[in-house]
Amino acid sequence: MADKKAQLTVDGLDDSIELPVYSGSTGPDVIDVRALTGKGFFTYDPGFVSTASCESKITYIDGGKGMLLHRGYAIEDLAEKSDYLETCFLLLHGELPSQKEYDEFVSIIRNHTMVHESIARFFRGFHHDSHPMAMMCGIVGALSAFYHDSLDITNERHRIISAHRLIAKMPTLAAMCYKHSQGQPFMYPDNKLGYSENFLHMMFGTPCDDPQVNPVLARAMDKIFLLHADHEQNASTSTVRLAGSSGANPFACIASGIATLWGPAHGGANEAVLSMLQEIGDVKNIDKFIQRAKDKDDPFRLMGFGHRVYKNFDPRAKVMKETCDEVLSVLGIENDPLLAIAKRLEEIALEDEYFIKKKLYPNVDFYSGIIMKAIGIPTDMFTVIFATGRTVGWIAHWHEMLTEDYRIGRPRQLYTGETKRDLTAVEDRKPANPTF
Ligand code: CMC
Fold first, then answer.
1. Ligand 1 midpoint to CA 301 (Å)
2. Which of the four pLDDT bands, split at 50, 70 and 90, describes residue 1?
3. What is the rounded distance in angstroms from the CA atom of residue 141 to the CA atom of residue 288?
4. Separation of 360 CA from ligand 1 center, angstroms?
5. Less crowded by CB within 10 Å, the N or C end of the chain?
C-alpha cells in the first residue's frame, strides 16, 4: 500500500503523473515508477544507483552509518555470537534456529557434503592451471545435470533440498579446485567435523597426512564465510535473481552469480587487494600508489577501498581486521609485511582529502586476503571462498523471489543507435572500420 504519492511533471505533458511512494520498515522511501511505461516513458538509471529492483526482507544496509543487518541482526553480533551455519538458517528461514532446529540443520548439511564421483572426472577435464573461479562456474552449473530429482522450482521441497545441497557442496567443490591445481588427490569430506573445519581438512589434508585442523583457524574461516553470507542486491545477487526470474534451475542461477562475483570490482577484489599489496611491496612505496589512485588519468584504484552503498566503514572490514590480528598472532606471524602495508595504507587513506571527500573506506575485501594467505590459501582461491560464503545469500534471495509475485527481469533502454535504414549490397558498402 502506498503511504505517500509523488507527482511527476514532464515538459509537453498537460497533466502530471501521480506515482505511489512506499515506505519500507527502514531505509529510503521508494517511488513506484511502473505506471510510467503506460505513459510512454522509461526511467534511466545505469548501474541501478537509484533503483530498488525488488522488495526483500533478508538484509538491510545503512551505508551512511556503516550498518549491516541480516533479518534485523547486526553483522558484528552474528560474527561474535553465531556461526556460519546458524547464519545460513537465519538467512533462509527468517529467524534464528532453536537448539533442536540448529542440530537438525547442521545434520542435514553434513549429509549433503559429498559430490557425485563423476564430478571428480569432470574436474580432470580442466587444465591444471585453470583459474579456480573458472572451474567453479562450470562445475556448479554442471550440478544441475546430477540432481534432476529436485529441479522443480515451483516445488518448495525441491527448492530447500537444492539450497541444502548447494550450501553443503560448495566447500567440497572449492577444495577440489585447489586439489586439482596442486595435482593432489581429492579429499572426501569428514562429516564428524564442523563446516569450516571440514573445508580446511579437504583443503590441506592428504590421504597420507591429515593433520588436525587448528580450531582458531577453523573459527576464522567460519567468520570469513559468515561475513560474506549476504549483502542485499549486489551485482551477483541481482544476477542470480535475474537468472531465476526466467525460471532457470538453482544450480544454473548460482553459477551465474559465481561468474558475476569473479569481477575485480566485486568479489574478485580480495584477490586484487593481495596482488596490490605485493606490488606496493614496501611501506615506503605507499605514497606513489596513493597518488596513482587519485590520478584521474590512471586506471589504478586502491583495491579493497570504496563501496557503492557504504559511505562509512564497512562493518565487515572491522571484524575482518580483528580476525586478521587474531590469526596472525596464533600463527606467530608477528611482523607480516603485507599487513604492515595494509595498515599504513588504511591510515594514510583515511587522512587523505581525496578519500575523505569521496567517502572511500576499507571494504570487506581489504583484510580478508591477508587472513587467507596466513592460513595458507592461495590468492586465486580467495574469490572461491567468497562465493562459498555467499551461496546462502544467493539462494535465500532466489527463494524469496520465487515465493513472491515476480515477473521475468527485463530492463528497457535509452536507444541512441541508428533508426531504420535500407540494407545496401556488399559491393556498394564503405569499409565498416570496426573499432574492437
Ligand atoms: N580508489 C580510488 N578511487 C576510487 C575508488 C578506489 N578504490 N573507489 C572509488 N573511487 C572514486 C572514483 O574514481 C570516483 O571518483 P569521481 O567521482 O571523481 O569519478 C568516485 O570515487 C566514485 O566511484 P564510483 O566508481 O563511481 O563508485 P561505484 O559505486 O560505482 O563503485 C566500487 C564502487 C566498489 C566498484 C569502487 O569503489 C571500486 O572500484 N573499488 C575498488 C574495488 C573493490 O574494492 N571492490 C570490492 C567492493 S566490496 C565487496 C563486493 O562488493 O564484492
1. 8
2. low
3. 42
4. 8
5. C
